């Protein structure tokens, strides 16, 4: 007789692994807040991107960028601090600037707070680690098709084939096309493929080779400009004054084409019960062709809002006299992380030591273009505020040519430079030891040392007077310690206190910023790094025979010499500002009753920032809400019968947030109601219907200082799944 022993539930993530050698403990026994978006939740919500998955995690805010480089793609903030360089896949950094699809995701882990010890430089607010699907020794075939609102079509395939007892091959594929409900002229077409092969499954030596490629063609959406109209206490998006939410103020030829490929080789070898070795190697190639319209509400726009004559208003497509220039970007990267885990005893003390080295290199080059017949004094045509027309652009605007002197903005300390090259090279070593003083009490401490080298070179148009090429090299040594006290009074509870630190050198954002450094008035770069310190106390529980997991944590995160992005040049600036976020986070996940699952989170923050250059912390940090909460629950009725069905739904709520550190512009709260209903036909077929933003509320997902992008309106997606 076949017997199955169930030891938990997929919605209780306390015993989920972190899937990398540097973090050998599961979520429950890791002394830091870790939010997991599990596989089953991804399925129920029909999650299609990394951005959608992270809506289940409190403290995550999506942000677009601006300026010459046009930061967009996946740009997130964790606990209010930028994480554009802190996205990882299976523990290795993903340097690409693109919108990541979830077609090859198994789960998503968010490690909150400074994590330089594990991930290296950066990770001020935390790190996002995607765990991908890998081959198994059981044959498996899955085909999934979704279709619905706004011409949405999406198909995925997942084939896992056993070759022999220890070898298997897996292939995931994707094709998708969609418009956006509630936004005119905005669309996205993408395809992807992710083959992988694993050797030595179930043996002491396992090798996994993975390739991931994604191609994306989309229209950049910079949304609604933010303005303070008569009678308003704060600046708000113009859609809050009654301008139609669907209005898109871009140009016909705006586009964002990305090609991103990563090749990964992961090795794990178990020498014996005491020693385990990991080595993870990745090459990445990324390219991007970008052209966008950065919108602004000028004098005519403000007058139209104040008078109520919206038809007389115009939206400009350039800012501060500079044209948002199109560009082409090519990047490549290399990373290798080797780690050794040792479990041993010294007398009555039990140790778990993890040590190793991390080496990464990333190179980026950009070429700015301009439009034929357009200069700094000859602006891009405006758009009518009430009835924008993306096609009222002269033919000369459609033709891109090499940047000319009269079309390039003069960036202080750099000059008029259409081209740039940059690299970052990091070598690091890490060591930590967890020592069990008793069966229920342990201390954990360690450090990471890094040597960060980078160079940014701006060149071109050297024939102009006083416009030489510029190069900004730097080398920074960083040291980040960490220490924790971990108590496990029972097998179902962990209590911990953690201190952790992180460092972000200048020039860190090699691929995700057009100008990763900005010189000062003397032509030199302020090389002081940004530093962060975390103090956190918390407890984790796995209750009712591991059916339900819960966490509570209190934290304080201090950041000095905060980095920010200049809104015109998109260059990185050392402001000297002090920032602090402190608060409480709660989570609950698992099975309440047979067939009834729940996932709920809540975050209460007190985020404060000082003015640039220091001073008293009195304002609220931009993009960070005081309160955030998520809830998702689903019930499976009559399982195993022909009349079975699953019904569920949830709420995502984010309190209103400020769009700048001066607290003069704000967007209202986000409230999003979603739902699902599904039915199984036998064991292998399933049909479902997902609804999103059922109240059709005007929410804002992508935020920046001068504008905010409305979230999609009410959307319905039908789904058919074949699973063998």
TrEMBL record:
Top-level taxon: Bacteria
GO cellular component entries: cell outer membrane
Alphabetical keyword list: Cell outer membrane, Ion transport, Membrane, Receptor, Signal, TonB box, Transmembrane, Transmembrane beta strand, Transport
Pfam family, one: Plug
SUPFAM superfamilies (UniProt xref): Porins (SSF56935)
Record Gene3D superfamilies: TonB-dependent receptor, beta-barrel domain, TonB-dependent receptor, plug domain
Limits of the TonB-dependent receptor plug domain: 27-127
CDD domains referenced in this protein's UniProt entry, alphabetically: ligand_gated_channel
Membrane topology: Multi-pass membrane protein
Subcellular location as annotated: Cell outer membrane
GO molecular function: siderophore uptake transmembrane transporter activity; signaling receptor activity
Family, similarity comment: Belongs to the TonB-dependent receptor family.
Listed name of the protein: Membrane protein
